[in-house]
Amino acid sequence: MGNKNNWTDEEHILAFNLYCKIPFSKINAHYPPVKELASILKRSNNAVAMKLANFARLDPSLKARNISGLTQGAKGEEVIWNKFNHNWEELAYQSECILAKYNGEPIGHELKDIPIDIIGREREAIVKLRINQNFFRKMILASYNTTCCITGSRTHELLTACHIIPWNIDKTNRMNPQNGLCMNILYHSA
Question: What separation, in Å, do the N-terminal and C-terminal C-alpha atoms of the chain show?
């Protein structure tokens, strides 16, 4: 891989995107999503794993559990953390747009169930909403290590990301990971 030193804002955003979507215990140079991002960024697997561990040092949910990432990091992680920590919707959408650009894919390529006859702003709003929902799901499942918080079930197909304060009631916390629970869909429905 390339021997680059300075990370760009876009690279930091992509690293933060991945940080939000994988459990802390999976941050290592051998984990496939880390290797995939390293390939996209043309950086070493170790460099990407270290960048993720640098983000972990800023994470209050880890600090609350007496877990820490690396003790030192770059200013870039702090800038991106502070930019998006209270703006999760923007992080989800911006980071997925950047990822699509780096992958050479259209932004909504995985959202096949969106009707093609929707045009203009309405389509953009639906795509953004779906992308953010998908990001929220990945983030919450990673936070709970893909385990239902009630039953301990790890059946991925039955797990859902639930909002503590409902999505339609608190617009500012729709994407906030502290407003989410990983639950078996049957308990969530009940």
Answer: 50
